[in-house]
Amino acid sequence: MKFGFVTCVQLGKSCMDAIYQIGGHLDLVITLEDTQAVNKSGRVYLDDFCKEYDIPMLKSSHINNEECVQRVIDAEIDWLFIIGWSQIANSAILSAPSKGVLGIHPTLLPQGRGRASIPWAILKGLKQTGVTLFKLDEGVDTGEIVSQLVIPLSSNITATQLYGLVNNAHIELIKGVFHRLRDDQVKLRTQDNSVATEWPGREPSGGQIDLSGSVFEAECLIRAVTRPYPGAFTFIGNNKYIIWAARISMSGILSDEIGIKFSDGFLVFTEYELVK
Length: 276
Prior knowledge:
7 helices, Methionyl-tRNA Fmet Formyltransferase, Chain A, domain 2, 13 strands, Rossmann fold, alpha/beta, four-stranded antiparallel beta sheet, single chain, seven-stranded mixed beta sheet, 2 domains, elongated
């Protein structure tokens, strides 16, 4: 069984590291040109990794380029992982590997197809979320499921914490399934569309705190869109505050604290930035 990997970020490289840690191998790596996405969060360069493990590497401006499709075919790749990659794969690259293309989505599909999986899991007050390894098709997160891992959620979890748990789950999932893929021992499971949900993308403007709402909703929003996301914000007078962390108080805001009064309590900023 031959494997290829497409990535340009640290999360993808961590999954590649995990494959070699368990004695696996890759037969092809595809990444972006060095001049692309230089400011992308987590951007990595894979030259040293591929040189260390003697993996053929192709740098290309887009995964759907003919050169990418042809290299996958020429390398006789069976399974192609695409992880941490923002470009949408078309039918040509999806059909190039003999077995298919695999991606990971940070929800328990078919729940939470779409975008902003980490913020929505917190905003919806879910008791658990997870990650799903699935076979990509031309739909949005609709392909057959290979394997899943559950991530329990506490009532006070932050996006920063959940982001780390999701990253770790990617690695654990890859380690747990790679040998089964290699040995052709995986059984794909069709998603149940009758219970599917779709979560929309979120814009930075969605982080504005509703001052007419509940203090509990405001505190939840802060946890949901804190780092690595743009953060929740509000205006006090002419000043804009980006709030990275806050606590709820029922007794009020002290003289040396900054916060907001709601009808059902007080929100005290514990980590924030003043934007002038």
